[in-house]
Write a structure and sequence with these properties.
Helices cover about 15% and strands about 30% of the residues. With about 625 residues, the chain is an alpha+beta fold. The strands form five sheets. It has an eight-stranded antiparallel beta barrel. A five-stranded antiparallel β-sheet has the order 18-22-21-17-19, with no helix packed on it. Strand 25 and strand 26 (about 385) form a beta hairpin. Helix 4 (about 505-520) crosses helix 8 and helix 7 (about 540-550) packs antiparallel against helix 8 (about 565-575). The chain is globular and about 85 Å long.
Length: about 625
Amino acid sequence: MSYLDSPRLHFRGWFQADVSTINNDVTAFDTGPSSGSPDPGWNPEGTGLFRFVDCVVTGGFLNGRRLVGTADPVMHMTIQNADDRPPGKLVDLDPQQQMVSMIFGMQVRLVSSSLQTILAGEFKPTPFTNLWQRQITGLRMDQKLGAMYQSVLEDVVWPAETESPLIRDLRKASQSGKLSIEFALFGYGRDPKIPRYTFGHVVGTIGPWQAGEPDHFVMGRHMIAPGPPFGTPPGGVATLQAQVAADNRSVTVDFSNSFQVESADGGLVDIGKLFLGVLTANPDSVNKTVPESGIAIIGEVPYTNGDWYTQTAGVSTFHLFGDAAARYVPNCPLALVSPSVAPTGVYNVRLQESIGGLYLRADQFVFRIDPGETQFIDFYATRFGAPLVDASIALSNMGPFLAQLGGTPPDLSVPANGVNIPPTSGPPQLIRTDLRGHARFSLQANPSGPTLNGDPWPRGYLAGQLYALGYRLEEEPANYVSNPGNFVTVLAYSRRRNPDNAPPTWYDDVQPLLAKYAKLYPIMTKYVVDLSSYHSVVTRLSALRLAFSLPLSDPNYMPVTRDMGSADRRMILDWLSTKGADGLPLLGKPRAGPAEPVKPPGATTAGFDLDPLQKAGKTEVILKYERAAQKETKQ
């Protein structure tokens, strides 16, 4: 079960992504004496937060029918983030891999009109997928790309009772304290002169989750749009997923990220009548046209109806009960078609299910891994939505493609033995699926980290190294259209550069790391602490100990970029807690140039003039923590 099942609720509204843009420039990580000023980008003082804003439940689906208006008390409830902590954080994997931006630390709540929390769950961190050129026209600096997130809400709680039948049934259907969630983003504004600066549109769906299912995609029916990666597909409809009900009486399709918009605030582009159908044969290639006799029409896609997209978030169920198409659905490809004007009696195929109904995907496709650590990549293979049993999966090295995507220098995927993915030359590594269509690959990081010629930082001023693992079904047909985003990216963290230097000192160990973040996040220096300065850092010891000890999924995790390995974070925590004769962490001696003058610690938590955006992020949390600590000390 997933968000495509019943019961489900739909919402629409705004999202805010106040990303910091300095780290988009690789050279921003260079703090050497010859380093210049990086390109600050369009939002250099971004806080990194991600949150939902003014999101309202606009529709639902229960007992085989759509719910709109006042059909259920859940209508017009709001979707909000946590009310007792900061919102989530939006983080790139790496400046050389910015196509898998990931949300961390976001809580999602359903809130009633009386401000009672009806349900709340933790959004399991995941990157966006199916990025494409969705918007046709726009203002200067409009982000014309659209994408979608799919994950689960974990540790779901139901604090308040409700009269909503949909919510009561959703609670009964949920398993293991999880719910399935998907949302599509588009119309993002990057121009400070417009009201929606750092804001964009969002539509989303929340539904049940079933144990044994993937967390980040549906083991259903997948239509992959041909064409260039991240571009506009030739059929005008982008990649989507669908699901046939267990009783074969309905098909539910997710169009949330599939139709173009004319402008950021405009409606869906009208491409003419569009029908969902099923081919009556199983072709060995993607069709451009199909005769009327070669397709059974299931129903018209009502995407031009004024309120359809906002009320359904683009998720539509087509009933098959008593329909002739039902007999073809289990073993033939689904297709989206439009009637041809000339010749007549023919449909133009805008999007077709994968050839042979074959589909393979890694559930989670972004990994951060420490030296010597083992993590697991879960793959799921299907044929027409059913598990593909005993299928052979070929794993390969996609380092060259990643290098094209991220741009070099610094060079990527060197040394080759940073993680145990197959070499670029030679045969692929094979793994096989089980009775659930599932296969698992043990991703192992070299205990020495990605070390090149004795240097644990092979990219020079950038810690860690990027690797890419490709995968495909060995029996994949020759004309198969692959999803260009279906590969795994791995950030292998570096080991400590000075592991034998104990105890750590500011000049030898800590300053080379923290100075990078002072450069990357000037808002931190402006309002909280100058991470490049010893005498500024020692005024924030308690707050920094807290921030560096938080789990990766916490919105206040430090560093927010999540590009520092556990060994370096442990070293910083050791340094923060180890006191010298003066009662402060060890300063040590500078490698070159004069020593930094030491100033006595003195917290300065009062007098900050914070913007509302900053108060919602890490800054205010740190200041509150320090105020509480000071109050406790005085008592």
